[in-house]
């Protein structure tokens, strides 16, 4: 007669650990490949939703709206949150792609294609967004967040020894 399976003491999330990055088993190339695929998917989805916003665009100039403007913009706060979040996701994914392909062959062509895509995204967002509904400087600021955060991270990581000495000195004198 067969023995019943032994009880395991793992949690329900034990299966999840087998899919996580493992430094002993996974190579940096594997990690880079996965990051490139995920970033490319995020870029495609966010680009498409910016070019063709949820709800579509108005088809006529009746009832106080303009043809070609986003229908979703009739809900200004929700549309604003959508545009900021979508732009932040797109710029983050593009930043990851550029970072991971920095030393690849054809990097110049990747940069040209990426900049062209971002310009297309920006012009599409500006074309479908009614001027009175969103302040565009906030959208441009959201696009810069990933780069600014990376620069600040680099600055603070290089200044960490100096900052730690300073804060130790401040803690001892107060």
UniProtKB/TrEMBL annotation:
Keywords: ANK repeat, Membrane, Repeat, Transmembrane, Transmembrane helix. It is found in: Membrane. It is a multi-pass membrane protein. The chain crosses the membrane at residues 77-98, 110-130, 136-156. The keyword Repeat applies. Residues 29-119 form the PGG domain. The keyword Membrane applies. InterPro entries: PGG_dom. GO terms for cellular component: plasma membrane. This is PGG domain-containing protein. It comes from Ficus carica.
């Amino acid at each position: 007669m067969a023995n019943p399976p032994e009880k395991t003491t793992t949690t329900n999330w034990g299966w999840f650990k087998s899919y996580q990055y493992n430094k002993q088993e996974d190579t940096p190339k594997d990690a880079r490949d996965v990051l490139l695929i995920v970033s490319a998917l995020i870029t495609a989805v966010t680009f498409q939703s910016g070019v063709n916003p949820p709800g579509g665009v108005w088809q006529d100039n009746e009832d106080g709206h303009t043809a070609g403007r986003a229908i979703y913009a009739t809900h200004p706060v929700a549309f604003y949150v959508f545009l900021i979040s979508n732009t932040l996701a797109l710029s983050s994914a593009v930043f990851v792609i550029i970072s991971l392909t920095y030393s690849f062959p054809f990097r110049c062509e990747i940069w040209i294609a990426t900049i062209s895509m971002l310009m297309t995204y920006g012009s599409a967002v500006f074309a479908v967004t009614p001027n009175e509904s969103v302040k565009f400087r906030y959208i441009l600021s959201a696009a810069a967040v990933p780069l600014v955060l990376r620069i600040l991270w680099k600055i603070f990581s290089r200044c960490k020894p100096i900052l730690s000495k300073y804060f130790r000195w401040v803690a001892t004198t107060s």
